[in-house]
Queue: 3 jobs
Job 1
Amino acid sequence: MREHDLLPPGPVVVAVSGGTDSVALLLLLSELAPKLGLDLHVAHFDHRLRPKAAAKDAQFVADLAQSRGATIRLGRADAPPTSEDDAREQRYAFLRRAARDVGATLIATGHTRDDQAETVLLHLTRGSGIAGLAGMRPRRDDIVRPLLAIGRADTLAICEHANVEPREDRSNADPKYARNRIRHKVLPELERINPQAKAALARLAEAAATATDAIDRAAERTLAAAGTNDGISLDRLDAALVDDALALAWTRATGRSLAAKHRAALAALATERDGSASLDLPGGRAIREYDRLRIEGSPAAHEAPAPELPLGDGVVEWRGWTFTVGSHRSGTFSAPAPKDGELVVRGRRPGDRLAGRLRIKVQDLFTDAKVPAAARATHPLVATGSGEVWWVVGLKHATGNADPGRWIVANPPPAQIEALRRYTGNIDSSERVRTG
């Protein structure tokens, strides 16, 4: 937690299913909370997959939370999930709602080194590249994983030491799930070869993460250097980084990550220079005209929802942007005092208008500034919890009486700085984007 600065002081949502790992997470954090200044809020979600056990699971988690001095929030799916991905999406949507309600910017989950090993093997089996071998990160956006450094045997020992008997989910033994087959069949065989196979796979993930981060930084630099008003200048891309740079550009434009075969197809499109050609891939279309490549996200990708995070005092990370909020007067933007709730940072929504007398459409601001359509869904807006937009970062803020004690400084991702300069021009002097 110290190494990755996972949990600064303040409120945090702890996801607790009732199983061994999440229970151990709550036990550990409740002991560390006074020292670290943490305000714990437990969240438990019922996927409606275990109707007979769900009520007992919820009561167990509620009792445990109360015994540890934490609040408890319970959620329930409207209908059973149709897939593992559907279940994950429902769960994280609930966790983020819970975080917003309590003013938390981070959600802690109980993923362990064992989960990391399983994830690496799953990605490897499915043909992942080096990015997939990095597995889960200690922190990804608003999700933190404090237990990645320990294994399931450790979490079980923690529960036993506290005399707490976790709830067991029988679906964890169901062989129809690929992860369970890896857990109960593949990993035991690997441990016959190397008893420390899980730790070895976790080290592989760390090494892959380090390499991936270095490649991503290089890809960001070459992509920024190749950016033009009408797309990407292919001749200005570093030849060794074309694949990674275009994959990064695709994710930014569409919100989707490309599989290895799709990355290869996109790179192949970029090798040609004669005439025009296009390629449809998950989330959008790539259009090459001579030495220029343009990526257009699908309409659904343009409107892809971005997470909504509360802007409390301190630092908030949102899709690569860093928002620093505080009471000092040295910032570059003074937020008007909201009349209807605390400020949040989020992506645009249909019908968004700037607060104030003129009620300017956010869509019109983007159009006038020639912000690429694919970039609009991931451009940050500062708004109140009820939806009033107070600042379209880098473009315009609402007029009104400013609160001189509330400052917000927005630092964009390095790879977006040049793009911002291209389509914002002379940024409003009262709220310029600070890039340092």
Job 2
Amino acid sequence: MKQVAVLICGAGPVGLVAGLRLALAGIETLVIDKENQVSQDFRASTFHPPTLDMLDELGLTQDLLSEGLISPTWQIRQHESHDKALFDLSVLKDDTRYPFRLQCEQRVLTRLADAKAQNTPNLQVRYGCELTHLVQDQSGVTASLSTANGPEQIHARYLIAADGARSVCRKLTGMTFTGETYPETTILATTTFKFEGVLPELSNVNYVWCKEGTFSLLRLPSIWRCSLYSDPDETVEQALEPAAIERKLQRIVPRSEPYNIVEIRPYRIHRRLIDNYRAGSVVFAGDSAHLTSPSGGMGMNGGIHDAVNLTDKLIAILRQGASEDLLDQYTRQRRPVAEEEILAQSHINRMRMQRRDAAWRAEEMGRLQALIASPEQHREHLLKSSMISGLARAAAVT
């Protein structure tokens, strides 16, 4: 039976970052993924400042910067009037090496991290390799795998569950995943239309109130991502029809010709949290541990922050002889941040954009503009929304 120090289930951003950090510390690591190749999933598109700091330590940030859009501001906006609350990330220049958001597809990170993993000693990434069963004892985890060449078994001292929202590791360990699924379905439509040339003073990240409801416009190097919602009299199936997408985009910017739509994809939004980030020698990170609304771009970033925190502890345990109690500290540090910072802030962001009362929107816009006008409040808000304060909070927990 093959032996490794750490087995990682899931070769997304969380699993690959964890694998690279462990391998660079001299720890033999195997990353497996049931898909047959590196993930091409669109998914997240925003990298927050502290995440760029972390990825810089792996030599990934500069390549990400070359393929993404540096976004020094983001805004909440009223569509009809163009009134806005503009948040300027340059105020974080003393808190991070990267005082901006980077708009870049998640799949760029997985491609870059996978390429680096292929040339990193102590690290192997195997695709088309699915975890089907696991057994724990005092020596660690014995994992049963399904591969193209038949069943295999592998023994690892620790297993990192980075296998996402439908985590097999979570099911096999019997961990509960409490929370809710939001009622609405978000419809992602990407288009090559250049909104920045028509709508005044757009940022690369825009959360927008409009007469009909809400939408968001997130810019990437060659496309805009538009998050849209069903009209009150529409089913999700009807809202996904090309004519319905066209109608919603025409509301944003009316034009005589149709929009060039690259992709249409629906997704449900969840708010869920695992009870404990540790089940013996199995430790959870990313979407296997917490699911949140994408509003604010905290999901992938929070997962990478999990991976860095967890691998710091595994390195201390495996290389320096530290106590396994550090894995319980991992839960104490990261779970409250997920619950009270990531999930709570994303929920607030979502609820803010879902409110349709015009008087409330005007009052909220005034409140946000006043906050921005106060240098101290502006910075504190950005420390929170950029996830810097959550990392500081976690680091203070012993």
Job 3
Amino acid sequence: MKKAGRYPKEFKIEAVRLLNLGDKPTSELARELGIKRTLLYRWKDQLKERGKSAFMGSGRPRNDQLSEVVKLKRELKEITLERDILKKAAAYFAKDLK
């Protein structure tokens, strides 16, 4: 058997699909897949509760996702600073018009 938590999302979805077909007893299906029977039921419940967002994992984002987040945060900070400067400039020039 594999280590816990090391199964790809596609494997889990396919295992649940086979379980839902009901062609084989759960214990036999689990044995063929090399996993515990209770794990099949857990995956089935997770898929039922969360739908497409099931089995997303709880680890850190991949490097490409992480760099994108960092880039977007930097851009947001810059744009926020520019907005604040423009607000102050507009208020300054509005005083001169009165």
